Amino acid sequence: MDEVGWQDSKQKEPQQSYMQPDGSFGTQAFLDGLDAIFNVGKARDQAEPYLQQALVDAENAGDDAGLLTVLNETMGFYRSQGRHQENMWMIQRAIELASRMRIEGSEAWTTTLINAATGLRAAKKYDQAEDLYRQALASAAKTLGPKDRRLAALHNNLSMLYSETDRPDQAEQELRQAMDILETSSTDPSRDLDLASTHTNLALLLMQRKDNPQALREAWDQARTALDIYRTGHLENSAHYASALAGFAQVCYMTGRFGQSADTYRRALAIIEDRYGKGSDYYQITKANLDQAQAAAEAAGDKDQSKQADEAASSQPKASSDRTPARNHSSDNDRHGSQPDIQGLDLAKAYWEQVGRPMLEERYPQYRGRIAVGLMGHGSDCYGFDDAISRDHDFGPGFCLWLTSEDYRAIGDQLQKDYEALPTEFMGFGSRTDSVRAKGADRRVGVFEIGAFFESLTGYRQAPPEGHPHEWLLLDEATLAAATNGRIFADPLGQMLATRQGFKAMPDDVRFCLISRRLGMIAQAGQYNLPRSLQRGDGAAAMLSINEFIKACASLIFLINNPLTVGYLPYYKWTFAALRRLSRRMATRLADLTEQLEDILRLASAACYGGQGFGEGGKGARPAAERVTELVESICARIVEELQAEGLTNSTETFLEWQRPYVEAHISSDDPVLHSI
């Protein structure tokens, strides 16, 4: 069955230590670094030393919350590698630490219980695992809503325990309960990754009833549905796709389609080897299944091959040559056949390491312990959202060198000349294609004085003081996102990291003020003006109301999760790319809203204009308009639940304008700029 556990999506450059300049442990930096290791497929070699160093750093910093995060990630890693004996110590440490922190009744406690239970279950310590799963269910009832997708994950994992301890009826009950939660909370079940995993798990469970033809037919349908979801949602790059393939392969085997089973196992095995390595339990089990299917196919001969080929064409994802690629390539970019499929941040890192650092060490040896290096600022590559389409401007080999004021006065001009003299071709890419807006004083790569770099982005050389809320409120979120994104590859003095961290550390009073403002706009645009505009038949006004509602909700999600931890919402072009990435993180608050917001956008044309001219048949606006208003109210109710969970309100009022006084009561400053009238 497909486990719901350690995530394989994270994004930032790994370093040996994430101790901050003030001696604290950088939890977000640690998570981002771990993401980067998995994104480049180096988990087998780099993940364990990285996790071990993080354990030391968090402990040395005395950061219990950070240490608990690292322990949770380490439990997941050891479990995925089949290193169960080593994992026992991590599980024990995590439970003891969480108990010592007295976090019972919190989401963090629930998460720790789930991860520990799953590790114990993988180690076949079923009694202990079941006890922790039961505790997790009790904790989840208090900390998670009835439609929270994490609750579905918990039922999914508990089902696996029941299945492995020969309790199929209870296992099926848990799985169907998980599926109900997911189907209820999903705005598009045809693209829902978690739902796909649950379909696979149910297929595997139903196959245990070998003598029941009806169960086997349903298993086939469930397994095919899972693969259809991956294909429809273009989710084949997910590590969980291997589980869906292996599940389908097992159904094929049980129903006598041995050749198709072997072919599908082979595809699953390639993904498993890439993600988890040959030493994992996952690989060994799948390899044994492949060998068994191959032997059965050879014994059966070719008599069923034509039938299997026809069924494979209708039930399996298309071959790689027909599949929609992960990134779209324009004809211009296709001319460079030698270019690797690499994102700008990774290209910048490689260019620095192979070209920039040798130059710096040769010509400026006395400064190499003083210069910060990385890539930050404007541009999709700095957010990690770039693809082949993005390469037509502001893309190519390049990085930033950040100097203190003193060092910049001493060597800045000459270092810039030496930077410009570096080879312009690298890894098959030609010279960087800078747009008109990214030249001269507005250049995005090269040599910068630290304060001047941040001033060019924000107007401030360093973050405004906490006691200057009016200055913070002048900085919109897109500006702050540009000043805090990207990666810092090296920072010997810690000054660059400290300055960036200052901009990430939005004062709580400012954050509560902005949360209040977003609640006001969500209520005004979505709950008040949108239905009135729809009633008037003013499609243009309704469309603009939807736009304001979506923007306010997107901003609220980032503010609720705290920019210090998750960063800021970038400018509109990358709003949903950022929301999707955030929603995939474990324990993200309001993660379920992203799909609902996209659903509203999909329905917007029909709701506002009746679908005319949009290929929807002109069937009238009413059904779509009703659905949009239902989604708006559902989102608002969900926001109130989260405000209550965060302790920001004790009111159940779902018209969000009336929630603002409760939120603003948490603002400690009397400065009128922070309070609504």
What does this structure look like?
This protein is an all-alpha fold and 677 residues long. Among the domains are: 201-280 and 287-324; 342-504, no CATH class; 508-674. It contains 29 helices and 4 strands. The chain has helices at 27-39, 43-61, 64-80, 84-100, 107-122, 126-143, 149-164, 168-185, 193-206, 213-232, 241-254, 258-276, 281-300, 305-315, 331-334, 344-363, 380-383, 405-420, 450-458, 469-474, 477-484, 495-504, 508-536, 539-561, 563-566, 575-583, 593-609, 622-645, 660-664; strands spanning 372-375, 400-403, 446-449, 487-490. A 4-stranded mixed β-sheet has the order 3-2-1-4, with helices on both faces. The radius of gyration is 27 Å and the shape is globular.
Which secondary structure elements does this structure contain, and how are they paired or packed?
Elements: H1 27-39, H2 43-61, H3 64-80, H4 84-100, H5 107-122, H6 126-143, H7 149-164, H8 168-185, H9 193-206, H10 213-232, H11 241-254, H12 258-276, H13 281-300, H14 305-315, H15 331-334, H16 344-363, E1 372-375, H17 380-383, E2 400-403, H18 405-420, E3 446-449, H19 450-458, H20 469-474, H21 477-484, E4 487-490, H22 495-504, H23 508-536, H24 539-561, H25 563-566, H26 575-583, H27 593-609, H28 622-645, H29 660-664
Parallel strand pairs: 2-3
Antiparallel strand pairs: 1-2, 1-4
Helix pairs in contact: 1-2, 2-3, 3-4, 3-5, 4-5, 5-6, 6-7, 7-8, 7-9, 8-9, 9-10, 9-11, 10-11, 11-12, 12-13, 23-24, 23-28, 24-26, 24-27, 27-28
